[in-house]
Structure formats: structure tokens, C-alpha cells
Design a protein that fits this description.
- By secondary structure, this protein is of the alpha/beta class.
- It has two domains: 151 residues, Bordetella uptake gene, domain 1 (D-Maltodextrin-Binding Protein, domain 2, 3-Layer(aba) Sandwich), CATH 3.40.190.150; 120 residues, 3-Layer(aba) Sandwich (D-Maltodextrin-Binding Protein, domain 2), CATH 3.40.190.10.
- It has 13 helices and eleven strands.
- The strands form three sheets. Strands 1, 2, 3, 4, 5 and 11 form a six-stranded mixed beta sheet that branches. A three-stranded antiparallel beta sheet has the order 9-6-10.
- Helix 2 packs antiparallel against helix 12 and helix 5 crosses helix 13.
- The longest helix has 19 residues.
């Protein structure tokens, strides 16, 4: 090739390079879930991995990195390049605040971009159907009569974990009044509950919908009743007979979460992710998939999501001493 032709080719390649660089995403996008396979966040992530590539233009893969109440997977996310090719799907609250407040995480809320509080769950007291307790009062009385004999499952740092400790505290019972079995994700915990390997669980109501045939709800940790749970009382109505009450803590808020550096350094690429995300939420097939799996697909936006996360962080400060690693 003549020198003149070589120069022309080089200039042409330089002209094309910026266009290629703008073609984000340039490779498959990884969704990291900081909990075990089979939990709510994992199942939701796999739904997005199936339907979102249509709008994103690249495949998506799910990687589960469980441990320490989400801390291991969250740290792994922050170790990846700030190029948008790795995003986390998690119950952003309470787990990220609890990691900061209790497990001494090195990050802060400002380390992240919280994309959208897509699904906020509620908390409910559940027992396997083969257990004898038909009411929450029967279970409470049995725990009092048989300290340390009745088991419960907790997903460390979850709203259910905090609420379980708050309930024992409100009843004047020590934490060893029940036998606590700790799990690194809600999937294994709910499987244990459905299989009768633990006696009760205080956890997320919609997240447990897929095991509903194997469990019995005894009380709602809400300030209002739900028509889909007819006859199930509010926990503080039950506790009125014990002359006590528990705080009602907002349930898990599931959201995509990016390291803050991605949006700061590549705002146009971040906007492309948000556009693809919203298009997926509007997709009729994906909305049917969400409905079939009893998951919500709300859009509240980043600003409102940040408000929710920060408000929950302040609320959780009051209860951090109730849980131990």
C-alpha cells in the first residue's frame, strides 16, 4: 500500500473509532445478584436476562455471589470497571444500609446509583402448613413456654431478620428464645420453610408467593390489612394483648444498582441502560412474566428511589443494635 493510501486508511479508521466507542454496550452485560440462586432477586434477574437483551442489544448473564448479607457481591460489583457492563440487582434496602451500619462496609450510599425502586414488598409471619399453630398468639405463647426449642430462618440483614429481633425484643424475650438458622439468601430459606426444616419465618409476602401452597400466614407486619390475605391480622393488633408493639419497617426494595462512577463518567451510556430498562418494563411479554411470578414492575425513577433508600437508612439506624453478624 502506498504511503498516501496508508495515511488515508489511518484517518478513516480514526473517524470510525468514536462511533464504535459510542456503541454501548460493547459486550454482554453481567447482572450480579449478591445472594444465592433461587431467591427473589435471582429469579427477577433471570427474568431481565431473558427479556431485556431485546432492547439493550447485548445478551445478559446472571452471576450469584452470595455471602455476608450481600456484602461479598456488592464489593465485587465495586471492583469491576465503571463501564456499565456489570450491574447489580438486589433488595437495595435493607441490605446495603445494613452492610454499612452493621458489617462495616467500606462503601457509603453515595457509592451507588439506585436506578429504580421497582418492587417494594411487605413483611408477614409464616409457618409451614404442617405446624400446629393456627394463630400468631399460639406461636408466641409456645415460644415463651419452650425457649430455644422453636426454630426460625433469617436472611442476615433482611427486613425479616430485623423484624424478628424487634418482635423478640418487644415481647421481652432474649434472642436465644428461638433457635435461629441463618441463610445467605431467601431462596434456600423459603425452601427450608416450605419443607418444614424451620418452624417459622418472618419474611417478604410477595417473595414467598411461590411456596404459598406449603405455608400458612399468621400476621401481617403492616398498618393496614390486605384483601389477598383475608382473616390474617395485623401484628400490632395481636401484640395489643401482650401490651406491646413492634415498629413497622418498610419491606425489601428491589432495584438495579450501579457503581456511582458509571453514571458520572458515562451519562449517555447510563441513559441507554435506563431506556432499555423502561422498554423492558413496558414489554407485554415481560409484564406477563412478572404477573405470572407475582412480581411488581413499577417505575418510580432514580430521584424517588434515592429518597426511599436514604429514608430507610435513617430508620434502620434505630434498629441496627438488634442484629448481630
Amino acid at each position: 500500500m502506498k504511503r498516501r493510501d496508508l495515511l488515508a486508511a489511518s484517518l478513516a479508521s480514526l473517524a470510525v473509532a468514536p462511533a464504535l466507542a459510542d456503541n454501548w454496550p460493547r459486550r454482554p452485560v453481567t447482572i450480579v445478584v449478591p445472594f444465592d440462586v433461587g431467591g427473589t432477586a435471582d429469579r427477577l434477574a433471570r427474568g431481565f436476562a431473558k427479556y431485556m437483551p431485546k432492547y439493550l442489544g447485548q445478551p445478559m448473564t446472571v452471576v450469584d455471589r452470595a455471602g455476608a448479607g450481600g456484602l461479598i457481591g456488592t464489593n465485587w460489583l465495586l471492583q469491576q470497571a465503571d463501564d456499565g457492563h456489570t450491574v447489580m440487582l438486589t433488595p437495595a434496602t435493607p441490605f446495603i444500609p445494613i452492610n454499612i451500619l452493621v458489617t462495616n462496609a467500606k462503601y457509603t450510599l453515595d457509592s451507588f446509583t439506585f436506578v429504580n425502586a421497582q418492587w417494594t414488598d411487605f413483611t408477614v409471619l409464616l409457618v409451614p402448613k404442617d405446624r400446629p399453630w393456627k394463630t400468631a398468639a399460639e406461636l408466641i405463647d409456645d415460644i415463651r413456654k419452650n425457649p430455644g426449642k422453636i426454630s426460625t430462618g433469617v436472611d442476615f440483614g433482611s427486613v425479616g431478620h430485623i423484624t424478628t429481633m424487634a418482635l423478640l425484643d418487644a415481647l421481652g424475650l432474649p434472642q436465644d428464645a428461638v433457635r435461629i438458622v441463618t441463610f445467605d439468601g431467601s431462596g434456600a430459606m423459603r425452601t427450608a420453610l416450605a419443607g418444614g426444616q424451620i418452624d417459622f419465618n418472618i419474611g417478604q409476602g410477595e417473595g414467598a408467593a411461590f411456596i404459598r401452597d406449603f405455608i400458612r400466614p399468621l400476621a401481617l407486619f403492616l398498618d393496614h390489612k390486605l384483601p389477598e390475605f383475608p382473616g390474617v391480622p395485623l401484628i400490632n393488633d395481636v401484640l395489643a394483648n401482650y401490651k406491646t408493639s413492634v415498629p413497622i419497617i418498610n419491606g425489601s426494595v428491589r432495584s438495579f444498582v450501579y457503581p456511582a462512577g458509571f453514571k458520572a463518567k458515562h451519562p449517555e451510556d447510563y441513559a441507554k441502560f435506563v431506556t432499555a430498562y423502561r422498554a423492558t418494563l413496558d414489554d407485554p411479554e415481560f409484564r406477563k412474566w412478572l404477573a405470572d411470578n407475582q412480581m411488581a414492575g413499577d417505575w418510580v425513577g432514580e430521584e424517588k428511589t434515592v429518597e426511599i433508600i436514604h429514608a430507610n437508612f435513617e430508620a434502620l439506624k434505630r434498629y441496627k443494635d438488634l442484629i448481630q453478624h
